[in-house]
């Protein structure tokens, strides 16, 4: 199995490329507009054909490359049903399997950061891997103060993620402090947002954050409703 974690500096976004070496088929999670040349070069160098491009949710901090990658590679573009973005090739629902070659990701609807947030769980032989989007970050969680975000829903979504085996690797949608990956066990113990005893405490913690809006929000959200295209 081929796995690459790519970083877009301006929005601190992680993009993941998963490839099946046998079939040569690949999928990409959360690609960022402007990074297409890098994605295409890497696909070519690794001998992979892009079959699927998926977003974990409608992003507010960067423009998606879902639309451009579909045009450039002929891949399918996918978002969760709750995103209600008509320009995608098709949408997926909670529990649905996204398959490319021998790679099978399970889509988990985890609302809270936004109402359309998904995580993807990948079990490769013994090792479970969670692509946690902006639901679970390393030593943090995604903000819940816009795009129908809801701290109580996020608390409940986080409980579902924390029920995964502690050895599960966690690859988030963003990182702002230099972290690249974690595990469920590590986050349970050391993530300061998870050291609360109930959903009301979590809600109070999130309400106290007072974060500025993302710089690109007014541009990114409408653009992403058009799959990142004009
Ligand atoms: Fe987000």
At a glance:
This protein is of the alpha/beta class. The chain has helices spanning 36-46, 66-73, 151-162, 184-190, 199-207, 217-224, and strands spanning 2-8, 13-20, 25-29, 49-54, 76-80, 90-92, 97-100, 103-109, 118-124, 127-133, 136-137, 140-141, 169-172, 182-183.
In words, what does this structure look like?
By secondary structure, the protein is of the alpha/beta class. It has a single domain, classed as Metallo-beta-lactamase, Chain A (4-Layer Sandwich), CATH 3.60.15. Helices cover 24% and strands 30% of the residues. The chain has a six-stranded mixed β-sheet with strand order 1-2-3-4-5-6. The chain has a six-stranded mixed β-sheet with strand order 7-8-9-10-13-14. A two-stranded antiparallel sheet has the order 11-12. A hairpin with a 2-residue loop joins strand 11 and strand 12. It is globular, with a radius of gyration of 17 Å. 45% of the residues are buried. The site of fe (iii) ion has 6 residues, from loops.
Outline the fold blueprint:
Layout: E1 2-8, E2 13-20, E3 25-29, H1 36-46, E4 49-54, H2 66-73, E5 76-80, E6 90-92, E7 97-100, E8 103-109, E9 118-124, E10 127-133, E11 136-137, E12 140-141, H3 151-162, E13 169-172, E14 182-183, H4 184-190, H5 199-207, H6 217-224
Parallel strand pairs: 3-4, 4-5, 5-6, 10-13
Antiparallel strand pairs: 1-2, 2-3, 7-8, 8-9, 9-10, 11-12, 13-14
Bound molecules: fe (iii) ion.
